[in-house]
Each structure stands twice: as structure tokens, then as C-alpha cells.
Amino acid sequence: MKISLLEFGEGDSRSNSLVRLSSVFDYAMKADELKFNRFWLAEHHLNNRKRAWCNPVAIVPVIASITQQIRVGTGGVLLKIHDPFDTASQFKLWNNIYSNRIDLGLANGGTSNIELLHRSGYPSPTFDERFSSIISYFHEEEKLRDQNIVIPPYQGTVPEVWALGASARGFHRSLLHGTNYVRSIFHELAELEPQKEIFESFKIDFEQRHGRKVKTMLSISGSCLRNEGRLKELRNEAEKDDKNHFIGTVSYFEDKLPELLQEYGADEILWRDMNKNVVEKFESLELLSAFLTKDEPEEECCLQA
């Protein structure tokens, strides 16, 4: 089983931004050591003075530089408030520096406060227009050269692009542009009904259109611990939350994770740990690593760091 990690940069009330950021670096290195597949950073712009980051883009190369094999990326860039050319330029360069292990997850979210700062008096490009621009910057190098534009390195490898959604029907951008797809079932507005037949049909259509199988992930939130008393406390906390969480011991997840992959038709779990206690997050990491399939990394030809 492949398990990847989605990190929000949270921590307990006693920590500050830099302490939380340091903990995330340690968490990423441990995940790399344990052979988790991906380490993704979420983008959230919240009025919280202790958050480790709001925009995670600058942290992607830092984590890539302190890890060896794990893929590093975003889950996802809020493209409504970012320039597609800058985003494509950064992620392509990093992907070639860091041995083709950079992911670019794109999310159709935003924040009105930040969007106001970007207003110029002219209509802004839509999310879909920005998404399409990212794809063209990655795959239409010769058209760019006709405009005297090169995104270095020329003819370099491009990162894996992932469209983020919260339903079985949110895959239209993946089908249109040939990107991978991750579906969240922990966000408050997420569709929990699997609708596997629709999703399987999408995967067939994707392969017919693009000549390869689409990669898919199911994003979940939860906590895996040994102590039943602590798990009970987390369940009580989860009842006050508007997200959907899975909370239990190793034996619970031994059955639950394969069941979820089968039920929703996904290839891989994207795990967001709801726990803000750093020690307990590391415990979850160790426990979940027992379910990992230790695949050999794929060899790719690109520039080395």
C-alpha cells in the first residue's frame, strides 16, 4: 500500500511558527526514512499568528533538500492568487534539481482578503484559465520559444500535476488536461458517497484519451495511536470539528485503509494527521509505516542537485 502525507503546519498552543516549522522538517525527514511516498504541504491563509506558513511554495525546495526519496509537493497551490508562469517556472526548476520528485497539486480555493490585494481593475483569469496556462507552460515549449520565452531547464522534466477535488465528479480537469487526481473526503463540503462506478468510468476514459493510467489518491484525516484513552479524547475533539476523521489503533487501520481504497477506487492514501501533538504525530507515522509497500524508486533522467 502507498501512503502519502498532507501537512498543515499546525502545532500545540505552546509552539510558535518557527518551532512548528522545525517540527515539520523533522516529520518530513522521518517520513522519508520510513519510505512514505509523498509529503505535501497545504496552503491556507488564516488569521493565526502561530501558523508555520500560509503559502507553502517556499518550503517545498527546503524539504526536498533535506530528504532523499520521498516526493515533495503542494496540496494544493491556490491558483486564484498565484501567477501561473511563476508557479510553472519554480516547480519545473525544482523538479529537475531534485531528481524528478516534485509534485504540483492545484486547488480551486482562495481567500477574499488576498484576492482583493491582486485586483487591478480588470477581470482576473478564472481558475480554469490559470490551470490551463500551467499545463501549456509545461508541455508547449516550442510555442513558448516562438514567443522568445524559455522556462529553464529547456526540455527538462516537468513535475507531476495533480488536480484536487472533493467528489467523484471533480475529475473533469484531470480528464481534460491529463493530470492526476486526488479526492478529499475529510473537508467539510466533501462528498462522502463513493460513487465508484463514476470514478472507474473516469479512469477508463482517461486511459483512452491520454494513453496511460491516471494516478489517484484518496485524502483522509485522522489519528492512529496505541493509547485508547487518548483516542477517546481525539474522538471527542472530532465531534466539535466540521471535518470527517478516522481515529483508531493499528488494528482498526489495518482493515480500514484497504477498505477505503477499494470502496473509493483510489490507488493511494493521502493522510492528514489531525493531531497537533508532535510526539503523537510521530507515533502515528511509525504505526502507519507498517502498511507501506516498499517499492523501489523509479529511475528518471534529469539534472541532479
Helices and strands in order, then pairings?
Blueprint: E1 2-7, H1 17-33, E2 38-41, H2 60-66, E3 71-78, H3 84-97, E4 102-107, H4 112-118, H5 127-139, H6 141-146, E5 160-165, H7 172-177, E6 180-184, H8 196-210, E7 216-224, H9 228-239, E8 245-248, H10 250-264, E9 268-273, H11 278-288
Parallel strand pairs: 1-2, 1-9, 2-3, 3-4, 4-5, 5-6, 6-7, 7-8, 7-9
Helix pairs in contact: 1-11, 3-5
Brief digest:
With 305 residues, this protein is of the alpha/beta class. Helix content is 40%, strand content 18%.
Kindly describe this structure.
The chain has 305 residues and is α/β, with parallel strands linked by helices. Helix content is 40%, strand content 18%. It has helices spanning 17-33, 60-66, 84-97, 112-118, 127-139, 141-146, 172-177, 196-210, 228-239, 250-264, 278-288; strands at residues 2-7, 38-41, 71-78, 102-107, 160-165, 180-184, 216-224, 245-248, 268-273. α1 (17-33) packs parallel to α11 and α3 crosses α5. The longest helix has 17 residues, at 17-33. The two termini are 29 Å apart.
